[in-house]
């Protein structure tokens, strides 16, 4: 499987290739925050098949008020307000 995507403004692009490790949806508060209230639907891909094809993440966001936070990477323009 090959997935291509990136940030909303298109400054950051990536490709992920390989067999999915997991397909799921998450209803935790952090995922609801990042999606604007809905569950977060995602596919986990092998790290070896992941690479940025345009740009590089400029902002890392990790929620400080959670017991087991997830770290997400963004371009400068699409990063959430911390």
Walk me through the structure.
By secondary structure, the chain is mainly β. It is built from one helix and seven strands, in the order βββαββββ. Strand 6 (59-62) and strand 7 form a beta hairpin. The radius of gyration is 13 Å and the shape is globular. 4% of the residues are buried.
Helix content: under 10%
Report mean pLDDT, rounded to a whole number: 89
The proportion of strand residues reads 35-45%
Oligomer category: single chain
Number of helices: 1
Q: How do the SSEs run, as a string of H and E?
A: EEEHEEEE
Arrangement of strands in the largest sheet: 1-2-5
Q: Kindly, what is the distance between the CA atoms of the first and last residues, rounded to a whole number of angstroms?
A: 34 Å
Poorly predicted sequence stretches spanning 5 or more consecutive residues: none
The 3D shape can be described as: globular
Characteristic key phrases:
single chain; 9% helix; 82 residues; two-stranded antiparallel sheet; mainly beta
């Amino acid at each position: 499987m090959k997935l291509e995507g990136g940030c909303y403004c298109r400054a950051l692009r990536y490709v992920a290739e390989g067999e999915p490790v997991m397909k799921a949806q998450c209803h935790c508060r952090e995922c609801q925050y990042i999606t604007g209230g809905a569950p977060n639907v995602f596919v986990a891909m092998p790290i070896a098949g992941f690479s940025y094809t345009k740009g590089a993440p400029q902002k890392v966001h990790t929620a400080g008020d959670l017991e087991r936070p997830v770290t997400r990477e963004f371009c400068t323009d699409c990063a959430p307000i911390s």
